[in-house]
Amino acid sequence: MRTLRRLNSAFGFQTSAKWIILATVVGVTSGLGAIAFDVLGQLVVRLTLVHVAGYAPPEALGEHTRFEHMLGGPTAPFSPWWIVAIMTAGGLVSGILVYTFAPEAAGAGTDAALDAFHNRQGRIQARIPFVKTLASAITLGTGGSGGREGPIAQICAGFASAISTQLKLSHRERRILLAAGMGAGVGAIFRAPLAGAIFAGEILYSDADLEADVILPASAASVIAYSLYTQSLPPDSRFVPLFGEDLQHLFSTPLELIPYAILAIILTIMAIGYAGILRGTRGLFERMPLPPHVRPAIGAGLAGLTAIGLLKLFQGDERILGVLGTGYGSLQVAVTAAGQMGIPLLLVIAIGKSVTAALTISSGGAGGVFGPSMVIGGCVGAAVGLTFQAIVPSLVSEPEAFAVVGMAGFFAGVARAPISTIIMVRALTGDYGLLLPTMLVSTLTFFTCRRFNLYEKQVPTRMDSRAHRGDFIVDVLEGLQVQDIFRHDPRLVVISEGMTLDDIVHGLAYTNQHYFPVVDSEGKMIGIFSDEDVRAYLYDDTLWKLVNAEDVMISNFIAVAPQDNLNTALKRFTSMNLDELPVIDPEQPGKLLGMLRRKETIDAYNRRLVELKRVEGEH
């Protein structure tokens, strides 16, 4: 770390070498964080659900089960009630851990990272990633319904923030590295480095905006984190997509876009319900007259009871338990053999996942919303595909294709991240034949779900972010020039260099002017003084005949040119705390054109801001 501090002092902000080094460090810590998170989560699963409850949650084909050979399979008979007990205990341990040491680690995690970016100068307390790693591994490992994207985003963002603080980087640099850490963690854990990099820049805003400064550092960090994480996997599974290599669906005719457009409408309805359930459930738990430490246990226990009730309803069909954990095992069947599950089971899993995820996450459990969103979107998509296959078999031959598109479309809408989601789903499935319908559905849900996003700490655009409020002021001021607003006042009082102080004092009584340019015999400006400068001589009238303007004036004065932008002018105002600046013709040195007031500069900014808001409202 000391070496990095020296490098930070040696290299400027814009130096490529500096950013390569910083991205490398963030990538390494993110890769190690992803490995630790994955190992701990799988270890908890083995020691609790597998060996105590006799239940080994099915995973996606590309997942690597790290402890299967070491610890073996279930050693106890399958017991649904043990699942409920384990989930409740996991929620309790997680709640005590989080609310005792780092309350900011509660919930999904992505929102907390977004809040740090926009409102906290990129600062995340150093203990949070460690607490989040343990709490999330326990929550998800004991069957809590959630995803891994939120926890890993906050974990790696926390590491990046801590590194930035140790290196004493600027607020802007810290924010960039924080976002790069988010992207690196997501890119590693889902084995999708490109999607992780785009996710880092896109997830910050709810409208169609992108944090461009983040993309390159996030790309470098994501590649390194991905490379490090995959090295912890066996060679035969390192580069296998999460849902296997056999998903090769084709888009054959534009007529297929009609049922896909209908899918987008159905996904929007589900998204509204999902967002509403999450927020409503959180409100209920916040109003509970109980310590926050025990709320995750209650949420996890209720989620477990919901799953057991559905298991009874479907006569012991364990695929319904996809409403617990990540649910990727049930989603794997939906994207490969949707017909084996049937429409009722698919829809119940989608609705049940919304409920169990809300109970787990909104109660304070440490889990993300991406995993549940994938399961909900995939199962709804598969159900819609099966429906259209029954109605128009000649048009829909592969209902599983709708599951793949539904995964992307649902999360693109509720997370406000269409580009990274499209790339992410393609990387998870290895299926690039559905790019066109995926783009259509993701675009439609992005527009129709704009009022129902999951991440409350997203802001619409860079203009709305406190992190960029100063940047926006600069952008507006740089769009205006001095010549647009400075004063061409024919009544401006100009003082000749030889005018006595006696004449100056008597002249002040007939003007409201505060700053007085001083010119030589050729009319060139050689200095300036203010009425405050003159007041220093008022108590000694014996000097009035002896002192002239040249003695009173400041010869090393600050001026602006007509072509200077108002940002430059404002910096010169503030550098000497001045209220007016002379405007000098750059082609005729010394020729005074007029005076620019600080008040006029601020008024021009406010008028332009009103115009921009009006134009934005019209569009």
Automatic annotation (TrEMBL):
This is Chloride channel protein. InterPro entries: CBS_dom (IPR000644), CBS_dom_sf (IPR046342), Cl-channel_core (IPR014743), ClC (IPR001807), ClC-type_chloride_channel (IPR050368). Residues 488-546, 553-612 form the CBS domain. The keyword GTP-binding does not apply. It is a multi-pass membrane protein. Keywords: CBS domain, Chloride, Chloride channel, Ion channel, Ion transport, Membrane, Transmembrane, Transmembrane helix, Transport. Gene3D superfamilies: CBS-domain (3.10.580.10), Clc chloride channel (1.10.3080.10). It comes from Roseiconus lacunae. Its main location: membrane. SUPFAM superfamilies: CBS-domain pair, Clc chloride channel. The chain crosses the membrane at residues 20-40, 81-102, 176-200, 257-277, 369-392, 404-428, 434-453. It is found in: Membrane. Pfam families: CBS (PF00571), Voltage_CLC (PF00654).
